[in-house]
Every structure is written in C-alpha cells, then in structure tokens.
Amino acid sequence: MKRKWLLSILAVIPAVLIPTAMMAQVAPDRAPRAESTEPVYKYWVYGGYSYTSLNQVNQSRYGLSGLNFDVTRDWGKYFALTADGAFYWYAFRSGNPGNPSVSMVLFGPELHAPLYGKVGGFFRGMIGGEHTGGTGQTPHISFAGGPGGGLYYAVNPHWDIRASGDYIGSSFSVTNNSPQLGNSPHLRFNARAGIGAVYRF
C-alpha cells in the first residue's frame, strides 16, 4: 500500500513540473513599439533683419537693409514649400543714385535636415518677382530668382534662430535709360543675407 502511494506521488510530480517548464520556454509577446511623443509642426513662420546688394542700380555704392518674412509648409521629414517676401529701403550711408528701394516676392521648394544636435540646415531654390523703386528705371519690375540656404538652431520645439543667404538674379534696364538703348534689360545677381527667428506651429 505504501509503495502504491509513493508511486502515485512520484507520478504526480512530473505531471505538474513538465507543463510549467514548457510554459517557461514560450517567448513572451513583444512589447508594442513606442511611438514618438515629439510634436510634429507643419507650418513655420520666419521674420527678421535682411540685407541685399544693389547691383541693378548703376553707380550704387551701398546695399540696402530691410525686413524679410517667410511662410513655410512642411510636407515631410525633408521637403517643404516656402513663400518669401522682403522689403529693403535703408542704406547705411548716402551716395546711391536716387532714393532706391527693393521689394521682392519669391516662391519655391526647400530641402531641410538635422545636422548635429539642435543644429539643422536647409537649401532652397526660389522664383518670383522683384521691384526696384526710386531710381527712374524703366521697367522697374523683373522676374527674379536663385538658390539659397542657411542654418537654424532649435531653441525649443516651437522656436528656432535662423541665419540664411541667397543669390537672387533679376533683369533690369540701366538707370535713366534713353530710347536709343531700347530699355534693354541686363541680368544681375544680388547677394542677400538675413538673421531672425522661426516659429513652428
């Protein structure tokens, strides 16, 4: 009787331990991939100080300072579209012919990417129109465009500090041109630079 009872106990022990051991060998389910908690902003607004040279005005000695504004729509991790507007009216010294001012409206694609830590860069190509006033040019409006780029530093998720430069070409006639010249336009390029703040939303 004792022997049967002992054999029964020995038979129960493997029956209990084997399923437990088998369950321990089953790989646990993978934890779901953690989703990024960083906010994603689709629009950027930029505003800041800007400077442009004035090569389309003959005998100009000084470039002009003014304001530059951008609105950018982000279409992914690297691609965006930008609308750019600028107005320049202030020369640091007198000496330019007339009382020149420059305004421009430009549009174009932008490629951007993080470079290191909070620093990122962008490259863009833009096309649009430019107006030169106060110099007697005829005509005083031209198609304009060119490449540009810059760097930005992320202060926080909403705000960046940005420095940029562009090389904008435009085609104007000479200042106070005569009928003999036939208002012949001449292509000139102006360097443009700016620094300001970007707000993302």
Oligomer: single chain
Total number of domains: 1
Sheet/helix structural class: mainly beta
Question: What characterizes the major β-sheet?
Answer: 8 strands, antiparallel, barrel
Tell me roughly what share of residues is in helical segments. Answer: 10-25%
Distance between the termini: 83 Å
CATH topology-level name: Porin
Mean pLDDT: 85
Total DSSP E strands: 8
Cα gyration radius (Å): 33 Å
CATH architecture: Beta Barrel
N-to-C SSE string, H for helix and E for strand: HEEEEEEEE
Write the layout of secondary structure elements.
Elements: H1 2-24, E1 43-52, E2 64-74, E3 79-90, E4 101-116, E5 119-133, E6 141-154, E7 159-173, E8 185-200
Structural account:
There is one protein chain. This protein has an eight-stranded antiparallel β-barrel. The protein starts with a helix and ends with a strand. It has a single domain, classed as Porin (Beta Barrel), CATH 2.40.160. Helices cover 11% and strands 54% of the residues. The mean pLDDT is 85. Strand 4 and strand 5 (119-133) form a beta hairpin. It is mainly beta.
Q: Summarize this, please?
A:
With 201 residues, the protein is mainly beta. Helices cover 11% and strands 54% of the residues. The radius of gyration is 33 Å and the shape is elongated.
Notable features of this structure?
8-stranded antiparallel barrel, 201 residues, 1 helix, mainly beta, Porin
